[in-house]
Amino acid sequence: MGTLPGRRNIPPWVKVPEDLKDPEVFQVQTRLLKAMFGPDGSRIPYIEQVSKAMLELKALESSDLTEVVVYGSYLYKLRTKWMLQSMAEWHRQRQERGMLKLAEAMTALELGPWMK
Questions:
Q1: pLDDT tens sequence across 78-106
Q2: What's the pLDDT at 110?
Q3: In CA terms, which of 57, 102, 115, 116 is 20 to 30 Å from 86?
Q4: CATH assignment of the domain containing 96
Q5: How far apart are CA 46 and CA 37, in angstroms?
Q6: pLDDT tens, 40-61?
Q7: pLDDT tens for each residue of 12-49
Q8: For the chain, how many structural domains are there in total?
Q9: Coiled-coil stretches, from where to where (predicted)?
Q10: Within-domain flag for 13
Q11: Domain range for residue 37?
Q12: How many CB atoms are closer than 10 A to CB 98?
């Protein structure tokens, strides 16, 4: 039971109305959006073209999550959802590793002999 997405330009590979029914929906941490989709979502058209799906992002109120809605034929939307979830996990782990390295560096600086 899907609703029409709030956009005017539906890509030519999306069949209206059958591909707009029953979209795949998942949530992504908002802080990962820029890494996944580029500044201001600049990579979204490319991702849509390659995946033959249509994406819609919806910010969730009072949450640090954004809902990603994927429209398209059954196989394309499942594949696109899997790809985007994998990208989100990769970026999340990458940011987490960066924070661990930063914490280690800060700890090393605090433990220097000149600080004792």
A1: 999 999 999 999 988 888 877 777 777 77
A2: 72
A3: 102
A4: 3.30.1370.10
A5: 9
A6: 889 999 999 999 999 999 988 8
A7: 999 988 999 999 999 999 889 999 999 888 999 999 99
A8: 1
A9: none
A10: no
A11: 18-109
A12: 10
- Residue 111: per-residue pLDDT: 57
79: helix, strand or coil: helix
Residue entry with tokens 């280690």:
104
Residue pair 65/28 in contact by the 8 Å Cβ criterion: yes
What proportions of the chain, in percent to the nearest 5, are helix, strand and coil?
55, 15, 30
Is residue 11 in a domain? Answer: no
Nearest one of 58, 83, 87, 68 to 24, comparing CA atoms: 68
Listed in order, strand segments (DSSP E) in 1-116 are 24-29, 54-59, 65-71
Tokens of 57: 């992002």
58 neighbors 69 (Cβ within 8 angstroms):
yes
Rounded Cα gap, residues 28 and 34, in angstroms:
11
Residue 37 CB partners (closer than 8 Å, separation 6+): 43, 44, 47, 57
| Predicted structure pTM score | 0.76
